[in-house]
Amino acid sequence: MNIHPIKRCLSLLAALLLILSALPVRGLAEEIEEGATGEILLSEYPQELIVGSPTELRGDFFTEMFGNDTSDIDVRTLIHGYNLVNWDQSQGVYVFDPTVVTGIRVMQDAQGNRTYFLILADDLFYSDGTPITAWDYAFSLLLMMAPEMEEIGAKIYRAEHIRGYDAYLTRRASALAGVEVLSDRQLAVTIDAAFMPFFYEIGLLLCVPYPISVIAPGCRVYDEGQGAFIGNIDRTVTEPIFTAELLRETVLNPETGYNSHPAVSSGPYTLTAFDGETAHFVINPYYKGSWVSRPELLPGYQPLEAEGAETVWPDSSTLPDNYTAVTDEEGNSVYLVRPSIERIAYRHVLSEDVPRLIAEDQLHLVNKLAYGPAINALIQSPEEIDVRMQNYPRLGMTFFSFSCEKPTVHEMAVRQAIAWCMDRDAITQAYTPYGVRVDGYYGMQKWEYLVVDGQIEAPVTLLPEGETAPAGMAEFQNLYATDETAYETMAAAWDALNLDHLTRYMVDTVRAEELLDEAGWTLNRSGKPYRPGIDDVRCKLVDDELVALDLTLLYPEGNHIVDTLEENFIRNLNEAGILLTLKAAPMDELLDSYYRRVERETDMIYLGTEFHVVVDPSITYATGDPILHQKWNNTFSDDEELYARAVEMRQTQPGDVFTYVTRWIAFQERYNQVLPTIPLYSNIYFDFYAPYLQNYDILAHTTWGQAIVMAYFGEDPEPVEEEAELEETEELGEGELAIDDL
534: phi > 0 → left, psi -120 to 50 → alpha, else beta; which? Predict the structure, then answer.
């Protein structure tokens, strides 16, 4: 799968923020001493880097099957490594990680099933020194879809793309035909022809290894020619050891279970302790390194075309000790980096406490800060407090999710009426002045949104005379032009893609009332005609039961969004005949309700999401498959057209970017109409950190857990002040901030 590299062209908002992100916020280092020669030296560095997050740690450190809290995702980045596949930011595609997969062969049979034969590196180890082999990856795939996991409350991996998945899951086959272990270093995974095409096809092979000796002691993976399966090590024992009872102990035990206390793992760090609030980590001594996919991130990188460059850089002889240069099987240089910060503590912090904790040196790094007052307090901090700052657009968004199984909000007209009562711009600005409302299922850093919003250049290539498009790519629209006229036509087609047809729900209580009238919400609590201004709430007969639009909204305890909802939402709802009660809940309770682990008693839930690079809403909004609808459709929406558009988007040929983006827009338009959730805002995140944390570059990574691997403790260099180079005639776009707004 080849996609032309996307060239970045940041919006004015992001560019202005990034100018500030390279600079110190205030002052000089607080703890300094003068050396014998008069130079300024930093004092002793902390023995443990303390990292804070405004999002609580739930302790789902194993997989997303038990929950997908943002902080837990970051922990997984720290402790689980050696994924078969990684996202290559330099190309904008998923690729096989060259430090894990050293050889690849792809074959397609007569039925159209595609098999990936993978050769794995022979120097992969868990944190206890146990070798990682192809059997471990097969175990991970089998474990993620095991009915035994579902029995203990997990949302199992819906691996319809793997050949033989359905037969294996329903016990019609004793082995998973699409996963074969050919040797300790050879793994084969077959993608079912019925599932293809899939735009992010290589992403279907995402898989990290998990230790069977810890999760399923007494068990092993077998392959006897029909595919992989889990069985007893002692074949004379006829009763299966791999059971829900076993997994309930090894995975969910609150003191030792792998979900919250995964002591043996494969990433750059290992978890040493977790008390429910703070997690502690230490470097994994067996970790060989994270693949650096972008050479410009290497220390001292200098491209050949740079002025004065005489040699190819980086040169392995001059790389720091924690960097390693190796050569893959094709002769290309591959660079690995191991962490140098020995110990890390990761904890939940209240946003309003962050400035104080940083000033008191009780917090060395805070990640994903969005709360405006806390951000402004740090930017305007006193001279004696030194703190560095980086900011970056968010992949995800915050939203109000509906419980669509409830008769109160089951109808699209009701959800639209609620949206017409919400002043999303005012709510956003009251909570974070660094947020921008969104009208669809995207965040401001999603590449599809950046393309249609004109913030990154369309991936059109004008081929030099005599050259042709790469093999297999010529068939795709608007990617490769052979002359200037064709290039202009293709560029114009990309420019025509937009989100102009999305409804921008503003405050319009008259429109809300019209929708409710049309949908039959015209009664009062006594079953008589509803009288605006007299009766407190609208009602309707639903299945012979009088249902009132008396709603409950669940929100996270301590979240300041509640401070603005009365003025900018609840009053407007009341005017339209809808009541809303706000209920604070611990994050565990809120997520249990959102994931429908319990019977829901709430009509709406306020929360946020951090999208993966690959977003497949055909699972999120599934309607056809009863299992998918029950297990994965958290809103329990039932709109067939929304689901159909999501499937159509997924089933785009890899590489056909124009078609994919066109279908992405069609999905956004239906989502914007159906509103299984009301999108609120996406925003600029801020990371603040101590000046001795060097080479921390969150802008180049997806999570702080990835960025910290390349960071180290060291003397704070003199900041290089940059001036904004802005065209005098350039105007601010809608929703963008001027420099004075900061």
Answer: alpha
pLDDT higher at 280 or 15: 280
Question: In this structure, which topology does domain 399-448+501-682 adopt according to CATH?
Answer: Dipeptide-binding Protein; domain 3 (3.10.105)
Judge whether residue 435 has pLDDT over 60: yes
- The rounded distance, in Å, linking the Cα atoms of 293 and 335 is 8
Q: Are strands 49-53 and 343-348 parallel, antiparallel or unpaired?
A: parallel
- 3-class SS letters over 409-452: CCCHHHHHHHHCCCCHHHHHHHHCCCEEECCCCCCCCCHHHHHH
Report the sign of the C-alpha dihedral through residues 173, 175, 179, 181, in that order: negative
For the record, the structure tokens of 102 come out as 């050293």
C-alpha angle 450/451/456, rounded to 5°? 75
Instruction: Give the side-chain half-sphere CA count within 13 A for 152.
Output: 22
Q: How far apart are CA 624 and CA 553, in angstroms?
A: 28
Maximum average pLDDT range among 57-71, 103-117, 629-643? 103-117
- C-alpha span between 91 and 5 (Å, rounded): 5
Q: What CA dihedral angle connects 226, 229, 231 and 233, to 10 degrees? A: 80
Range(s) within the chain of domains with CATH label 3.90.76.10:
81-266
What single-letter amino acid sits at 425? D
Nearest in space to 403 (alpha carbons), one of 391, 411, 393 = 411
- Which amino acid is residue 438, in one-letter code? V
CB-based contact 116:205 (threshold 8 Å): yes
User: Rounded to an integer, what is the distance from CA 297 to the centroid of its chain?
Assistant: 22
Cα torsion angle, 600, 251, 615, 651, sign = negative
| Whether pLDDT at 719 is above 80 | no
Report the residue count for the chain.
742
**CA atoms of 352 and 363, how far apart (whole Å):** 13
pLDDT in tens, 399-412: 999 999 999 999 99
Residue 307 DSSP class:
T
Tokens 């009562």 appear where? 421
CATH code linked to domain 81-266: 3.90.76.10
Helix (H) or strand (E) holding 248: helix 244-252
Burial of 562 (0-12, 13-18, 19+ CB in 10 A): middle
Nearest to 344 by CA among 276, 289, 262, 269: 269
CATH 3.10.105.10 domain locations along the chain:
399-448+501-682
Are 396 and 41 contacting, i.e. CB atoms less than 8 angstroms apart? no
pLDDT band of residue 308 (cuts 50, 70, 90) is low
